[in-house]
Amino acid sequence: MPILPSLTEMEHAYRRSDPSYDGVFFLGVRTTGVFCRPTCGARKPLPKNVVYFATPREALFAGYRPCKRCQPMAALGRPPAWVETLLAEVEKDPTRRMMDADIRLLGIDPTRARRFFRKNHGMTFQAYCRSRRLGKALEKIRNGERIDDVALGYGYDSHSGFREAFSRKFGAPPGKARSTKHITVAWIESPLGPLIAGATDTSLVLLEFTERRMLDAQFAALRRHFRQPIVPGENPILRQVKDQLAGYFAGTLKKFSVPLEFPGSKFQEHVWQALLRIPYGKTVSYEELARKINAPRAQRAVGHTNGLNRIGIIIPCHRVINKNGELGGYGGGLWRKQALLELERGERKYTLDGTTA
After folding, report:
1. Among 314, 321, 357, which residue's Cα sits nearest to residue 338?
2. Mean pLDDT for the chain?
3. In what order do the strands lie in the sheet with 204-209?
4. pLDDT value for 121
5. Is there a domain that residue 205 lies in?
6. In this structure, is residue 267 part of a structural domain?
7. Mean pLDDT highest for which of 27-41, 59-73, 249-263?
8. Backbone Cα Rg of the chain
9. pLDDT at 169
10. Per the residue annotation, which of 36, 40, 67, 317 is the catalytic one?
11. Helices (H) then strands (E): counts for the chain
């Protein structure tokens, strides 16, 4: 997984249109829904409207589409003409499912497309198409559209097909999901990129950055532990989370009070409870954390469990670092871990509109 430069370094590089950072990071523009290279010649947006990504894949899965001007999906310079044709075809209708036969109609070998995208973007062309469909679905969720409308974002040709897939994935048909006990999920904007939050009627059960690779596994864990469907929407717990996150990023809130629920194995729950006891602005090593739960030889298991934390930021797994002082790992990206620690040390804060102070 690529490691991003510091947030300040990326901000300066983008403002300077520094070509040495092309390919090092990409930036999404909240107001337009596109993502660009640092050297994009388009008008610079306000800092509060910019979010940074390590790879095009992260930007795509966060719901952003490639900029037509700077073409961030190109490996170096402009992509080959046949790749431009493919990308243009996808952007005509990102919800469309392009089959090998459709690709051949464009005069392109599907195997060639698959190899090019895997080599240059770390995913096949079909995976790219799926990411664009997911991006459209996330966009619909973010904008509060009805569940049946979200079907179109996933590229289903009929509501009946979507309802069948919904039932398989979420455990209940969409018509019944809202009327029974369920986990409500919502999109939350943050200065460090969009988050997906999930809550029951009584507690927060999920808070993850949207492009995190483990997001599907986290949804599967929620369905296994709670045996409830997962439905887009809003509820009082999610509104409380949004308010408290705004205070946290502004530097005015140092202790969250939203009720949490994080079922797991006995060992996992011990680790996550220990994380909650790490004070704001402090860090501990994986070794220290293992000692705190009376499992001094379980450092590796502690690290693994740290990575399985489903409630980022609030259960502060970002406060665990290597014993030599290096950051260690972080599912949301090391640049975010660094930014969160800088925020808690008082080295940076964000106004309520997301700008850096």
Report:
1. 321
2. 79
3. 204-209, 195-199, 183-188, 230-232
4. 61
5. no
6. yes
7. 249-263
8. 21
9. 47
10. 317
11. 15, 10
Does the annotation mark 129 as catalytic?
Answer: no
Angle between helices 125-142 and 81-92 (to 10 degrees): 30
User: Residue 87 CA to chain centroid, in angstroms?
Assistant: 23
Q: Do residues 68 and 39 lie in contact, with contact meaning Cβ atoms separated by under 8 Å?
A: no
| Range of the structural domain that residue 23 is part of | 1-72
Token pair 């909240």 is at which residue?
Answer: 30
Domains: count for the chain: 2
Q: Are strands 34-36 and 50-53 parallel, antiparallel or unpaired?
A: unpaired
pLDDT of residue 256: 97
Q: What is the mean pLDDT of residues 13-35?
A: 84
Q: What is the pLDDT of residue 258?
A: 97
Task: Decide if 292 is inside a domain.
Answer: yes
Question: Is residue 161 included in any domain, yes or no?
Answer: no
- Give the H/E segment covering residue 9: helix 7-16
pTM: 0.59
Nearest to 175 by CA among 147, 197, 142, 141: 147
How far apart CA 215 and CA 195 sit, in angstroms, is: 11
* Cα gap 224→208, rounded to integer Å: 18
So what's the pLDDT on residue 325?
A: 82
